[in-house]
Amino acid sequence: MGRRRAIAVRASRRLLLLLLALVALWGGGRLVQVAWESHYAGARGPYLQLLTSDGVSILWQTVRPSSAVVRFGPAAGDAREELVVPEADTRHRVRLEGLVPDTDYVYEVAGLGGGRFHTAPAAGARVPVRLWVQGDPGYPGPAAEAVVEAAFAWMRARPRAGRPLLDLWLTTGDNAYRSGSNPQFQKALFEPRAGLLRHLPVWPAYGNHDARRWAFFDIFELPAAGEAGGLPSGTEHWFALDYGPLHVVFLDTQSADLGAGSDMARWLEADLAATDQPWRIAVFHHPPYTKGSHDSDRWRDSRGRMVRVRENLVPLLEAGGVDLVLSGHSHMYERSHLLACHYGASDTLRPDMILDDGGDGEYVKPARPGAPRAGTVYVVIGSSSKLDQGPLDHPAMAAALARMGSLVIDIDGPRLVLRFIDRDGAVADAFTLHKTGAGAGRTCPGT
User: Fold this and answer.
1) Element (H, E) at 412
2) Averaged in consecutive runs of 10 residues, what is the pLDDT profile of the chain (447 residues)?
3) Which terminus of the chain is more solvent-facing, meaning fewer CB atoms within 10 Å of its CB: N or C?
4) Is pTM beyond 0.85 here?
5) Residue 430 · residue 420 · CB < 8 Å
6) Between the CA of residue 124 and those of 97, 232, 275, what are the distances in Å?
7) What is the C-alpha separation between 178 and 212, in angstroms, rounded?
8) How does DSSP assign 270-299, residue by residue?
9) What SS3 class is residue 17?
């Protein structure tokens, strides 16, 4: 009996060791796969990153090692400077500095061509601003191309006198499906947007599909040290940028701690308290309110990230006077009422939490910059490259559409106009947010 038991114990140990070996083998293979797919060996670029009022980064990649030579100067004139990096490499980055705000420049990378860009205006400058926002743009193909072509056709038909066609290009995350690999970024971003990337940098939110590989933070250069405005965050996972009268905060709702006292939450509160910009927008991936292809009420959906955003970050955004929140994840389009103090599930929404229902496409809030809890509009835009299904019946929403498209946002003085341009070029939804008159925000229970 004892011998049989000993044999059974040895057999169990061998089985356990075999299972552990298989797990280790699978884990090692998975790690190798992630590392391999986070790398891209082909040619890429040039493309712009971290465009500010006085500088821009130009990045590109070559198959064979080479030196870097960039010539640049104001578009109005023939004067050109030359920057030379003699060390041979396959990955190149040149930072142009000392530029003049709100000015057209041209550049050329030796052997690869170049482009034209427009530096950001000084922070606080009262200039019109136009943003283009793609929601979850990472599925390349005809549908995504139709969305892009429709938005740019709409903008080209409505140019702004004395201003560029477009100032800021943002995304709400999931920039390369399905796993955010470097080759997938090549297919979803660099190949179809090569021409645009030579002239305008994309400012991307970090989505759950981007987080499946290590390519995201290798590809993008983001302002951890406050180079583009706002308080330094010390990380590329969350940061701020200023563009004229606009302050934008980007948050990481995928991998950052979403707790009330987290590093990101403390930075967010301090950054919003420090800015005096009249317009404030927040961008991140997981929406606090949605009943599209995801359900913000469900703790099991997205591991509770939408619930934690609503409970822990939304109060800070509202207290910091954020006017508009842009998120993706749900592959639909939804636009909320002007809200304050709604931090629970959809069935806890009360009439007094709706400051303006926006049913006529018009919202009004106090003119004082950063008025706490004076109302925020929440827009879910996750349908720029993929459309899913969902009930679209969240009571916080004034509009909800199962339609592909992207956003064009115009800010001019005390007025913000957001348009959802569908893949056919129609304005499928729009609203105007007016900053006018006196008034103050409200006090929320528990804040």
Assistant:
1) strand 405-412
2) 66 70 58 66 95 98 96 94 94 97 98 96 96 98 98 97 96 96 97 98 98 96 98 98 98 98 98 97 98 97 98 98 98 98 98 94 91 95 97 98 98 97 98 86 75
3) N
4) yes
5) yes
6) 20, 18, 10
7) 8
8) HHHHH---SEEEEE-SS-SS-BSSSBTT-T
9) helix
CB 82, CB 69: distance < 8 Å? yes
Instruction: Give the Cα separation of 260 and 140 in Å (integer).
Output: 37
Helices and strands per DSSP (H, E), number in the chain: 8, 21
The answer to whether 293 touches 389, Cβ cutoff 8 Å, is yes
Sort 180 into a burial class: Cβ within 10 Å, 0-12 / 13-18 / 19+.
buried
What is the CB-side half-sphere exposure of residue 93 using CA atoms within 13 A?
10
The pLDDT of residue 445: 77
- Which residues contact residue 360 at a Cβ distance below 8 angstroms, ignoring those fewer than 6 apart? none
b/e sequence 307-330, b meaning 16+ C-beta within 10 Å: bbbbbbbbbbbbbbbbbbbbbbbb
Q: How many CA atoms lie within 13 A of 85 on its CB side?
A: 19
**Whole-number pLDDT of residue 358:** 92
Beta-sheet strands, E only, within 297-346: 324-327, 333-336, 338-339
